[in-house]
Amino acid sequence: MNKLLKTICIWGIFFLNFNFIFAQAFFKDGIFYQTIDEERVIVVKNPNEGYYGEINIPKEVSILGKEKNFKVVGIKYNAFSNCPNLISIDMKNCNISVLPEFLFFNCINLKNVQFPISLKSIGSNSFVNCNNISVLQIPDGVEIVDDFAFSECHNLEAVYLPDSLKYLGQGAFKNCDKLTNIALSKNLEFIEESCFENCRSLKHVFFGDKVKKIGKFAFKNCTRLENTDFPPSLETIRLSAFARCDNMTEICLPENIKELSSTSFGYCFGIEKIIFKGQRPPKKFAYDAFIYPDSPFPELRRLEIIIPEGAIKNFKGKIESKIKNRSCFLKEENEIVLYP
Q1: How distant is the alpha carbon of residue 101 from its chain centre?
Q2: Model pLDDT for residues 61-90, shown as the tens digit of each residue
Q3: Nearest to 232 by CA among 202, 210, 247, 258
Q4: Cα–Cα distance for residue pair 13/19, rounded to 1 Å
Protein backbone atom coordinates (compact mmCIF):
# COMPACT_ATOMS: atom_id res chain seq x y z
CA MET A 1 0.00 0.00 0.00
CA ASN A 2 2.85 2.37 0.94
CA LYS A 3 4.61 1.55 -2.33
CA LEU A 4 1.44 2.29 -4.32
CA LEU A 5 0.94 5.57 -2.46
CA LYS A 6 4.54 6.56 -3.16
CA THR A 7 4.10 5.82 -6.87
CA ILE A 8 0.91 7.90 -7.01
CA CYS A 9 2.69 10.82 -5.33
CA ILE A 10 5.60 10.68 -7.77
CA TRP A 11 3.28 10.65 -10.77
CA GLY A 12 1.21 13.41 -9.21
CA ILE A 13 4.29 15.64 -8.85
CA PHE A 14 5.30 14.84 -12.44
CA PHE A 15 1.90 15.84 -13.84
CA LEU A 16 1.80 19.00 -11.76
CA ASN A 17 5.20 20.04 -13.14
CA PHE A 18 4.15 18.97 -16.64
CA ASN A 19 1.02 21.08 -16.42
CA PHE A 20 2.97 24.02 -14.99
CA ILE A 21 5.47 24.00 -17.82
CA PHE A 22 3.08 23.55 -20.68
CA ALA A 23 0.21 25.62 -19.28
CA GLN A 24 2.43 28.67 -18.95
CA ALA A 25 2.87 29.67 -22.57
CA PHE A 26 1.74 33.27 -22.66
CA PHE A 27 1.75 36.44 -24.73
CA LYS A 28 2.80 39.81 -23.37
CA ASP A 29 3.78 43.15 -24.94
CA GLY A 30 4.01 41.63 -28.40
CA ILE A 31 6.16 38.64 -27.39
CA PHE A 32 5.34 34.96 -26.84
CA TYR A 33 7.05 33.31 -23.86
CA GLN A 34 7.36 29.76 -22.55
CA THR A 35 8.20 28.90 -18.95
CA ILE A 36 11.03 26.43 -18.39
CA ASP A 37 10.78 26.32 -14.59
CA GLU A 38 9.30 28.37 -11.75
CA GLU A 39 11.75 31.23 -12.24
CA ARG A 40 12.72 31.41 -15.91
CA VAL A 41 11.16 31.82 -19.37
CA ILE A 42 12.36 31.80 -22.97
CA VAL A 43 11.06 33.67 -26.01
CA VAL A 44 9.35 31.40 -28.57
CA LYS A 45 7.90 31.73 -32.05
CA ASN A 46 4.67 33.63 -32.53
CA PRO A 47 2.34 30.83 -33.72
CA ASN A 48 -0.07 33.23 -35.37
CA GLU A 49 1.27 36.01 -37.56
CA GLY A 50 4.93 36.13 -36.60
CA TYR A 51 6.67 39.17 -35.16
CA TYR A 52 6.55 42.65 -36.63
CA GLY A 53 7.57 46.24 -35.94
CA GLU A 54 9.87 46.96 -33.01
CA ILE A 55 10.48 44.25 -30.42
CA ASN A 56 12.08 44.91 -27.03
CA ILE A 57 12.96 41.79 -25.03
CA PRO A 58 13.02 42.65 -21.30
CA LYS A 59 15.22 41.30 -18.53
CA GLU A 60 12.17 40.05 -16.62
CA VAL A 61 8.50 39.52 -17.36
CA SER A 62 5.46 39.15 -15.10
CA ILE A 63 2.73 36.53 -15.38
CA LEU A 64 -0.82 37.20 -14.28
CA GLY A 65 -1.44 35.51 -10.96
CA LYS A 66 2.25 35.05 -10.12
CA GLU A 67 3.80 37.10 -7.34
CA LYS A 68 7.34 37.34 -8.70
CA ASN A 69 8.71 38.11 -12.14
CA PHE A 70 10.26 35.51 -14.41
CA LYS A 71 13.78 36.01 -15.80
CA VAL A 72 14.12 35.95 -19.60
CA VAL A 73 17.10 33.62 -20.14
CA GLY A 74 16.86 32.43 -23.73
CA ILE A 75 15.32 32.50 -27.19
CA LYS A 76 14.16 29.37 -28.94
CA TYR A 77 15.61 28.18 -32.26
CA ASN A 78 14.27 30.17 -35.28
CA ALA A 79 11.86 32.15 -33.05
CA PHE A 80 11.99 35.20 -35.33
CA SER A 81 12.79 33.54 -38.66
CA ASN A 82 10.83 34.54 -41.78
CA CYS A 83 9.31 37.64 -40.20
CA PRO A 84 9.39 40.10 -43.12
CA ASN A 85 7.74 42.88 -41.10
CA LEU A 86 10.17 42.81 -38.18
CA ILE A 87 12.03 46.16 -38.16
CA SER A 88 13.97 46.34 -34.92
CA ILE A 89 15.07 43.99 -32.13
CA ASP A 90 16.42 45.23 -28.79
CA MET A 91 17.94 42.52 -26.58
CA LYS A 92 20.39 44.58 -24.57
CA ASN A 93 18.54 44.23 -21.25
CA CYS A 94 17.94 40.48 -21.23
CA ASN A 95 20.34 37.96 -19.70
CA ILE A 96 20.93 35.82 -22.79
CA SER A 97 24.30 34.24 -23.62
CA VAL A 98 23.43 32.36 -26.84
CA LEU A 99 21.53 33.38 -29.96
CA PRO A 100 20.47 30.06 -31.54
CA GLU A 101 20.77 29.13 -35.19
CA PHE A 102 18.38 30.52 -37.82
CA LEU A 103 17.08 33.00 -35.23
CA PHE A 104 16.46 35.92 -37.64
CA PHE A 105 16.77 33.98 -40.88
CA ASN A 106 15.20 35.82 -43.82
CA CYS A 107 14.02 38.84 -41.82
CA ILE A 108 14.44 40.93 -44.92
CA ASN A 109 13.42 44.27 -43.37
CA LEU A 110 15.21 43.95 -40.04
CA LYS A 111 17.26 47.13 -39.73
CA ASN A 112 18.31 47.66 -36.11
CA VAL A 113 19.83 45.01 -33.84
CA GLN A 114 20.96 45.56 -30.26
CA PHE A 115 22.65 42.50 -28.81
CA PRO A 116 22.53 41.34 -25.17
CA ILE A 117 25.48 42.59 -23.12
CA SER A 118 25.79 39.04 -21.72
CA LEU A 119 26.08 37.47 -25.20
CA LYS A 120 28.77 34.82 -25.79
CA SER A 121 27.73 33.09 -29.01
CA ILE A 122 25.87 33.91 -32.25
CA GLY A 123 24.51 30.76 -33.90
CA SER A 124 24.87 29.54 -37.47
CA ASN A 125 22.65 31.10 -40.14
CA SER A 126 21.15 33.39 -37.50
CA PHE A 127 21.00 36.54 -39.68
CA VAL A 128 21.07 35.10 -43.20
CA ASN A 129 19.40 37.36 -45.78
CA CYS A 130 18.76 40.23 -43.36
CA ASN A 131 19.19 42.66 -46.22
CA ASN A 132 18.29 45.87 -44.42
CA ILE A 133 21.05 45.78 -41.79
CA SER A 134 23.84 48.25 -42.61
CA VAL A 135 25.85 48.38 -39.36
CA LEU A 136 26.58 45.72 -36.73
CA GLN A 137 28.13 46.35 -33.32
CA ILE A 138 28.90 42.97 -31.80
CA PRO A 139 29.50 43.44 -28.07
CA ASP A 140 32.64 42.66 -26.16
CA GLY A 141 32.42 39.23 -24.59
CA VAL A 142 31.20 37.43 -27.72
CA GLU A 143 33.53 34.50 -28.43
CA ILE A 144 31.76 32.70 -31.29
CA VAL A 145 30.20 33.90 -34.53
CA ASP A 146 29.16 30.62 -36.10
CA ASP A 147 28.95 29.41 -39.71
CA PHE A 148 27.08 31.67 -42.18
CA ALA A 149 25.82 33.81 -39.30
CA PHE A 150 25.64 37.02 -41.39
CA SER A 151 25.92 35.67 -44.93
CA GLU A 152 23.79 37.22 -47.68
CA CYS A 153 23.39 40.50 -45.77
CA HIS A 154 23.69 42.44 -49.00
CA ASN A 155 23.50 45.96 -47.50
CA LEU A 156 25.85 45.39 -44.59
CA GLU A 157 28.54 48.11 -44.77
CA ALA A 158 30.28 48.06 -41.39
CA VAL A 159 30.94 45.42 -38.73
CA TYR A 160 32.67 45.93 -35.40
CA LEU A 161 34.11 42.71 -33.99
CA PRO A 162 35.28 42.50 -30.36
CA ASP A 163 38.73 41.28 -29.35
CA SER A 164 37.01 38.59 -27.28
CA LEU A 165 36.09 36.78 -30.54
CA LYS A 166 37.85 33.41 -30.85
CA TYR A 167 35.90 31.73 -33.65
CA LEU A 168 34.63 33.28 -36.86
CA GLY A 169 32.80 30.56 -38.74
CA GLN A 170 32.73 29.28 -42.28
CA GLY A 171 31.00 31.73 -44.62
CA ALA A 172 30.25 34.07 -41.71
CA PHE A 173 30.09 37.14 -43.98
CA LYS A 174 29.91 35.47 -47.38
CA ASN A 175 28.19 37.53 -50.11
CA CYS A 176 28.03 40.72 -48.03
CA ASP A 177 28.39 42.87 -51.14
CA LYS A 178 28.73 46.29 -49.49
CA LEU A 179 31.09 45.46 -46.63
CA THR A 180 34.11 47.76 -47.07
CA ASN A 181 36.45 47.27 -44.09
CA ILE A 182 36.96 44.64 -41.44
CA ALA A 183 39.22 44.63 -38.37
CA LEU A 184 39.59 41.10 -37.04
CA SER A 185 39.87 40.16 -33.40
CA LYS A 186 43.32 40.13 -31.80
CA ASN A 187 42.53 36.66 -30.44
CA LEU A 188 41.44 35.09 -33.73
CA GLU A 189 43.80 32.35 -34.97
CA PHE A 190 41.92 30.95 -37.96
CA ILE A 191 39.97 32.59 -40.78
CA GLU A 192 37.58 29.85 -41.82
CA GLU A 193 36.51 28.71 -45.29
CA SER A 194 34.64 31.28 -47.42
CA CYS A 195 34.46 33.67 -44.47
CA PHE A 196 34.44 36.79 -46.68
CA GLU A 197 34.00 35.20 -50.10
CA ASN A 198 32.35 37.45 -52.72
CA CYS A 199 32.56 40.57 -50.54
CA ARG A 200 33.21 42.61 -53.67
CA SER A 201 33.35 46.01 -51.92
CA LEU A 202 35.85 44.91 -49.28
CA LYS A 203 38.96 47.11 -49.48
CA HIS A 204 40.81 46.74 -46.20
CA VAL A 205 41.35 43.79 -43.85
CA PHE A 206 43.22 44.25 -40.60
CA PHE A 207 44.47 40.96 -39.18
CA GLY A 208 45.15 40.33 -35.51
CA ASP A 209 48.58 39.27 -34.32
CA LYS A 210 47.59 35.64 -33.70
CA VAL A 211 46.23 34.59 -37.11
CA LYS A 212 47.89 31.34 -38.21
CA LYS A 213 45.69 30.08 -41.05
CA ILE A 214 43.54 31.62 -43.75
CA GLY A 215 41.08 29.00 -45.00
CA LYS A 216 40.12 28.12 -48.55
CA PHE A 217 38.07 30.69 -50.48
CA ALA A 218 38.27 33.00 -47.44
CA PHE A 219 38.62 36.16 -49.56
CA LYS A 220 37.93 34.78 -53.01
CA ASN A 221 36.40 37.30 -55.42
CA CYS A 222 37.06 40.25 -53.13
CA THR A 223 37.83 42.22 -56.25
CA ARG A 224 38.47 45.57 -54.52
CA LEU A 225 40.72 44.23 -51.77
CA GLU A 226 43.89 46.28 -51.55
CA ASN A 227 47.34 45.32 -50.29
CA THR A 228 47.13 43.61 -46.92
CA ASP A 229 49.64 43.37 -44.08
CA PHE A 230 49.83 39.76 -43.02
CA PRO A 231 50.87 39.21 -39.37
CA PRO A 232 54.17 37.43 -38.56
CA SER A 233 52.12 34.59 -37.03
CA LEU A 234 50.64 33.55 -40.41
CA GLU A 235 51.66 30.02 -41.46
CA THR A 236 49.07 28.77 -43.96
CA ILE A 237 47.11 30.19 -46.89
CA ARG A 238 44.73 27.58 -48.28
CA LEU A 239 43.08 26.84 -51.62
CA SER A 240 41.99 29.96 -53.56
CA ALA A 241 42.01 32.03 -50.36
CA PHE A 242 42.71 35.23 -52.35
CA ALA A 243 41.83 34.04 -55.86
CA ARG A 244 40.63 36.79 -58.21
CA CYS A 245 41.51 39.63 -55.87
CA ASP A 246 42.40 41.81 -58.84
CA ASN A 247 43.04 45.05 -56.93
CA MET A 248 46.03 43.72 -54.99
CA THR A 249 49.35 44.96 -56.40
CA GLU A 250 51.79 43.64 -53.81
CA ILE A 251 51.96 40.61 -51.52
CA CYS A 252 54.32 40.46 -48.55
CA LEU A 253 54.54 36.93 -47.11
CA PRO A 254 55.83 36.71 -43.50
CA GLU A 255 58.83 34.75 -42.36
CA ASN A 256 56.83 31.88 -40.83
CA ILE A 257 54.75 31.06 -43.91
CA LYS A 258 54.78 27.27 -44.36
CA GLU A 259 52.05 26.56 -46.88
CA LEU A 260 50.73 28.21 -50.03
CA SER A 261 48.01 26.00 -51.48
CA SER A 262 46.73 25.67 -55.02
CA THR A 263 45.55 28.98 -56.56
CA SER A 264 45.95 30.71 -53.19
CA PHE A 265 46.62 33.89 -55.20
CA GLY A 266 45.35 32.60 -58.53
CA TYR A 267 44.15 35.00 -61.25
CA CYS A 268 45.15 38.11 -59.26
CA PHE A 269 45.94 40.17 -62.36
CA GLY A 270 46.92 43.31 -60.45
CA ILE A 271 49.84 41.78 -58.52
CA GLU A 272 53.21 43.17 -59.63
CA LYS A 273 55.40 42.29 -56.69
CA ILE A 274 55.70 39.33 -54.27
CA ILE A 275 57.95 39.70 -51.22
CA PHE A 276 59.17 36.73 -49.19
CA LYS A 277 60.44 37.59 -45.70
CA GLY A 278 61.69 34.08 -44.89
CA GLN A 279 65.08 32.68 -45.87
CA ARG A 280 63.47 29.72 -47.61
CA PRO A 281 60.33 29.09 -49.67
CA PRO A 282 57.31 27.57 -47.90
CA LYS A 283 57.63 23.81 -47.32
CA LYS A 284 54.26 23.24 -48.96
CA PHE A 285 54.25 25.38 -52.08
CA ALA A 286 51.63 24.40 -54.67
CA TYR A 287 52.81 24.36 -58.28
CA ASP A 288 49.92 26.67 -59.26
CA ALA A 289 49.78 28.99 -56.23
CA PHE A 290 50.07 32.01 -58.55
CA ILE A 291 48.40 30.62 -61.66
CA TYR A 292 47.18 32.78 -64.56
CA PRO A 293 45.16 31.85 -67.66
CA ASP A 294 46.93 30.45 -70.75
CA SER A 295 46.19 33.69 -72.58
CA PRO A 296 46.42 36.45 -69.97
CA PHE A 297 44.06 39.37 -70.36
CA PRO A 298 44.91 42.15 -69.98
CA GLU A 299 48.59 41.78 -70.90
CA LEU A 300 50.63 41.69 -67.71
CA ARG A 301 54.08 43.07 -66.90
CA ARG A 302 56.76 40.78 -65.52
CA LEU A 303 56.16 39.76 -61.93
CA GLU A 304 58.84 40.90 -59.47
CA ILE A 305 59.76 38.42 -56.73
CA ILE A 306 61.85 39.83 -53.87
CA ILE A 307 63.68 37.64 -51.36
CA PRO A 308 66.00 38.37 -48.39
CA GLU A 309 69.65 39.13 -49.03
CA GLY A 310 71.77 36.01 -49.31
CA ALA A 311 68.79 33.71 -49.93
CA ILE A 312 69.11 33.41 -53.70
CA LYS A 313 70.42 29.82 -53.51
CA ASN A 314 67.43 28.71 -51.47
CA PHE A 315 64.90 30.24 -53.86
CA LYS A 316 66.46 29.96 -57.31
CA GLY A 317 64.50 27.54 -59.49
CA LYS A 318 61.95 26.86 -56.74
CA ILE A 319 59.80 29.96 -57.18
CA GLU A 320 59.75 30.74 -60.87
CA SER A 321 58.07 27.42 -61.65
CA LYS A 322 55.17 28.31 -59.36
CA ILE A 323 54.21 31.34 -61.45
CA LYS A 324 52.09 29.76 -64.14
CA ASN A 325 51.57 31.45 -67.51
CA ARG A 326 53.28 34.69 -66.51
CA SER A 327 56.90 35.83 -66.83
CA CYS A 328 58.73 36.77 -63.65
CA PHE A 329 62.18 37.57 -62.28
CA LEU A 330 63.81 36.91 -58.93
CA LYS A 331 65.89 39.47 -57.01
CA GLU A 332 67.29 39.97 -53.53
CA GLU A 333 66.40 42.96 -51.37
CA ASN A 334 68.22 46.16 -52.39
CA GLU A 335 69.39 44.53 -55.62
CA ILE A 336 69.00 46.67 -58.71
CA VAL A 337 67.78 44.70 -61.71
CA LEU A 338 67.17 46.11 -65.15
CA TYR A 339 64.60 44.30 -67.22
CA PRO A 340 62.65 45.13 -70.40
Answers
A1: 14
A2: 998 767 789 999 999 999 999 999 999 999
A3: 210
A4: 10
